[in-house]
Amino acid sequence: METMKVILFDQSGEAEKLYIGNFLKPKVADEEILVEVKAAGLNRADILQRMGKYPPPPGASPILGLEISGVIVEKGSKVFKWNIGDKVFGLIPGGGYAQFAVIHEDMAMKIPDSLTFEQAASIPEAFLTAFQAIKWLAELKSAEFILIHAGASGVGTAAIQIARELGAKIIITASAEKHFICKELGAEVLINYKTQSFKEIVMKTTNNYGVDVIIDFVGGNYFKDNIDSLTRDGRLILLATLSGGKASDFDVRKILVKRLKIIGSTLRSRSLDYQIRLTKDLKEFALEKIASGRIKPVIDKIYDWKDVIEAHKRMEENKNIGKIVLRIN
Ligand SMILES: NC(=O)c1ccc[n+]([C@@H]2O[C@H](COP(=O)([O-])OP(=O)(O)OC[C@H]3O[C@@H](n4cnc5c(N)ncnc54)[C@H](OP(=O)(O)O)[C@@H]3O)[C@@H](O)[C@H]2O)c1
Question: Which pLDDT score is estimated for 249?
Answer without folding.
Answer: 84
